[in-house]
Amino acid sequence: MKKLEAVIFDFDGTIVDTEKVYYENMRDLTEEVLGTKLDKMDYIENVSGTNEETSRRYYNKRFGMSDKDYDKFEEEITRRIFENYHSAPVLPGIAEVMEYLHEIGVKMAVASNGKEEHIRTGLKRKGFEKYIGAIATKEEVENPKPASDVYLLAANKLGVNIENSIAIEDSKPGAIGASKSGATLILQTNDITKYMDFTGVQYAYKDVDLLETIKDVVENK
């Protein structure tokens, strides 16, 4: 990296601790609709950090849920999560990092498998909207994470070189996509994704003091 041009954040589980919100709502609705428990580790290994299509395949294969029933399930999950977004806390170091990057003129973006409406709402509620110069989502690309498409799109929207960018991710699918993009990857796990197997993922840093690590990159330490 010649000079840091941008930091591209994942949203769910990286900026805001919504992974726990997702799991708890999926767990509760699965029991309500199917009368069975959603195993936490099974969820982490197969659903967490992925996308709606992967979740649909999981529920079809694991529970025999039809596409029609999954459409209703997804609609209810979306409603519940949207209602609970405001209660999800900001993850450690994020606010300080955004303020620091803003002060030194480094661009910021979000690259997510989530829906733009949810991301914009979440950023606005947490007061981060003013920092984010671009949002790239699965809705705009052919291949969601673990492909690199959303990261490359985010860099393109910002007008920066992805190889002079840092990507911050919490999950394996996102980390794979970020690594493939050519960005320098900081892997910051949370209470859900810390159980994931990151074997083979090419990251530069893992579970670090985010602000100090980015300062070191900026200062070429």
TrEMBL record:
Q: SUPFAM superfamilies from the xrefs?
A: HAD-like
Q: Name one Pfam family in it.
A: HAD_2
Sorted alphabetically, which InterPro entries does this protein's record hold?
HAD-like_sf, HAD-SF_hydro_IA, HAD_2, HAD_sf, PGP-like_dom2
- Membrane-spanning regions, if any? none
**PANTHER family from the xrefs?**
2-DEOXYGLUCOSE-6-PHOSPHATE PHOSPHATASE 2 (PTHR18901), PSEUDOURIDINE-5'-PHOSPHATASE (PTHR18901:SF38)
**What is the protein name stated in its UniProt record?**
HAD family phosphatase
